[in-house]
Amino acid sequence: MAKTRKVEDSMGELEVPADAYYGASTMRAVQNFPISGIRFPRRFIHALGLIKKAAAEVNADLGLLDRDLAGAIATAAQEVADGKLDEQFPIDIYQTGSGTSTNTNANEVIAYRAYEILGEKGKTVHPNDHVNKCQSSNDVIPTAIHVACALALKEELLPALEQLRKELEGKSRNFLDVIKTGRTHLQDATPIRLGQEFRGYAGQAEESARRAGQAIAELEVVALGGTAVGTGINAHPDFAGAVCRKLAAWTGLDIKETRNHFHAQATLDALVAAHGALKTVAVSLWKIASDVRLMGSGPRAGIGELNLPEVQPGSSIMPGKVNPVIVESLTMAVARVLGNDVTVTVCGQSGSFFELNVMMPLAGYASLESISLLANSARNFATRSVAGLEATERGPEMVERGLMLGTALTPIIGYDEAAKLAKEAARSGKTIRELARERGIDEKTLAVVLDPALMTEPSAERVGGGGG
Fold first, then answer.
1. The model's pTM
2. Cα separation of 154 and 150, whole Å?
3. Which residues are known catalytic residues?
């Protein structure tokens, strides 16, 4: 039988594991929320530890805590931030909507560990009176969510998007001489350079990074200092600003106290906005990956303009089959992120009642999951798919047979005649060049007007401009 020890709180006495640093409040939450087995991720616990460390140091500076006591709390909180006490955070994500259970969990663990650190000095460390001084779950938890998500964006997603952008830019340069048939509505359109298509994808990656940066800016404004309902009751007026300055120095983020605590605690607006940027990033990744998958379809019965890297066998029954599995993993991650966006939106919309949002744990978890999924899948797509892409001869071979080459003749014979030419080419199997030649357009003109390279950029020669 596992050893236990007795602890108590305002509701009475109960037993916790003998080796647990947490106390009664945490144990009650473990018993109350046997829902999913999902706990707050490492990113969040790291941020929570940093907040508690900064709070202890600031409380000492303000003369609100004994220096030795504050030092022990800060040391214990750093251990929480470093992941040394992760097993002491057993509470489910689906818990009290303010995250009070997890904040109390942190207070209890840090208090117990600080007591150990103090050793023979014999000072009692109280979870609420000391570790939680000048704080409330209602401002600590949203602050931890913001700090955790902003750090994840900075350290995970932005580098992954930059790596993807570089790979796409490289392919844009490598594929610039490859001229192929463009497509709109999944139907043939005028010629385009494969490199131009990849320039568009690189632009999406670049814009995704910009949007992720905007999301960081949303999250750098934190609720700390509002305590229970935004009024700042039981907090020193200089406390939150000083803690934010420490957090900013430690993280490299521009963390600052909100100018409106009533807004910051009563809503999840900033998190909803930040996740909206993640949704846009996800949609961009889906577009890039789906285009690559389509261009790589085949190899014989599909479009076949790209060769995708072969990373694993694709079938248990069809020998030699290779599938675009890296793209598939990315699109599944995107699907999850889009679902998380609905979750975060509902949390923000349905969880905000008067002075507090009460769906914070789930919103924080979903946001951190989205950042991680996007970062990992974007990096994987860049290294295992984009980096190894090769252009085939299929694209250039199909250009001369393209019906939309007739567009180039519009300045010469008009839209209606060009449409007739395209339809005749489709019916007869002849090329646009052959039919134009039959209609008496001279070879010199055709050489210029039907030059695919000139069709991939604006050209005064093709449209008959004389210049200025």
1. 0.95
2. 6
3. 185, 315
